[in-house]
Queue: 4 jobs
Job 1
Amino acid sequence: MGTILWLTSSLALAVDGLVVVQSSHSVAATVVRLQATVEQRGLTVFARIDHAAGAAKIGQTLRPTALLIFGNPQGGTPLMQCAQTAGID
């Protein structure tokens, strides 16, 4: 099962199904710290996506926004075998 964490530079409104936690660090520093913690706990980082960098590639701008997708394949795979959409949570 994977976890998707969305980090943005401004205070975000809570949306059903999303975990929103305010950080006293920048988005970049928060992602680095979070990824280190995730890896120290033996979880797998599947993807790290910088949405602002993607926007810049097409000449657009976004405030700093990042997505870190992580999880535990050993625990998540059996859940996904029962219900594939569990991988979205």
Job 2
Amino acid sequence: MNIAPLIQEYKNLNLHDVINYDRFNEFAITHHSTAIEGSTLSLQDVQLLLNDGLTPAGKPFIHALMVKNHFDAIRFVMDLPNDTVINIPLIQKMNALVMKDTGVTYNTALGTVNSSEGEFRKGNVTAGDSYFPNYDKVPQLMNRLVENLEKELVVANTINEKIELSFKAHFDLVSIHPFYDGNGRTSRLLMSLIQKRFGLPLAIVFIEDKKEYINALVASRKNENLRPFFNFMYSQYAKFLNAEIEKYKSEIQDKNKDVRGGFSLVF
């Protein structure tokens, strides 16, 4: 999919110059990423929690902690210099931030693992019908992931190459599943980090498309072909970009109507 023209149209709007645009975009990413993992907070709940410190009534407190931790993690990622080396300690730090207040201790035959500290799992895990690599292969697979990623970051030139590299890193990390928990959120944050590094808009995986997201991951693993996952992620990327462009155009149109009507809502 040639998404470059859509990205350029989005960039031409200069939305990042709008006050608080980036912050509310991070709220949206946080909402969708945590909702995929079970949070019941709405986008409005997320905004009230992160802007005003208001915990939503009638919803599990742990979901508020998930949201706050994810927002702290994405702020950490967005504040990293673009020349930051993406290595294992950095990915573990991202996972530790995601799991800071919701992690638990796992007791295994090989010792304890605190999932709030970004430690690799010491046991095998499954998710639904998906089986992930044996725990003893995780260090080797993670070393390979970061080594390949650093090489690919240098040679990615076109918009599509850069975007697909971010999608691939997302897929590879969540497929290794190196942690007991927070793998999906950490993988999506790694994708965001790479997109930020290349000056690209940040992709969102929408909660309403969770089933298709999981199906795409499963299909790519089953067929050993990244294309099903790439196709899904391109559709999500286009969905986000089109929505932002249309929202901007609609707001401009509404403001023009207000001016023609003899008053303006712009202060």
Job 3
Amino acid sequence: VTACIAFFILNWSCPLALALKCYQCLPRVNGTCTETKTNCADLCANGTHVDFYIKTCAVPAECVNGSLSAGFFNQTFSTKCCSTDLCNTLPVQFPNGKSCYMCDILGKNCSEMVDCEGEQYYCISATGKEKMHSMAIKGCSSKSYCNGDALSVQVAGTISDVKCCEGDLCNSVENVKMSLFLTLGSLLSSTLLY
């Protein structure tokens, strides 16, 4: 009776009609799985646990990344969480070991670090423009974005002053100023030589 009451209260406080829909893929012993749709009461998540790819619903406390290296045993897990129906379609990418500085949503505080993922081997600094406002953009980037290949997809005029670098945490304010100083110095010296 207690279990039924608890279940009823849970169902009543989180009605099925309002529950989130997620793709679910829980691996079998051989590592394969069949993707199905399920109802969730909280968040959708993609995740990789050891060598298993898992797709299911999760609570916020389960939306974490981490790794453990103990000599004979290594484990890395990466989770991406989202909160709209059937949003867990993209594969999870593991951090690649590179870190860059990133800015807050207002583009004011750029002192936090972010772990780069997948093919993001460059740190980027740029200026974003939204109507009449400009803001700093910092983070991780792929080579194609730094080369301008992906910039053509952007709406003209929304991102400018793109600078990329390859070192860890190389997109700090000090490094950008030093790069600008060196560029101006080389221009000045070449002008003086002529």
Job 4
Amino acid sequence: ESEMFPPVRSKLPADTLEALAEQMEARKAELGAPVLADKIDMTKEQLMELAQEQSVPGRSTMSHEELAATVAPPMVSG
């Protein structure tokens, strides 16, 4: 991801990137994988805590949306 996505992002128009992101989120949801919607309602502080626990590099400079897109959702006990 860190090698492939930056060049793709720099060469594709924003609307194409948005469409690809929507397709990827839909496919992840179909497969039962965590999606952005699972984390978007969390506070930035909650996301930062998860990012720290998950050792996400660059977390201190990320926006709420970037953190939500990057961290894995919290594990739910059940």
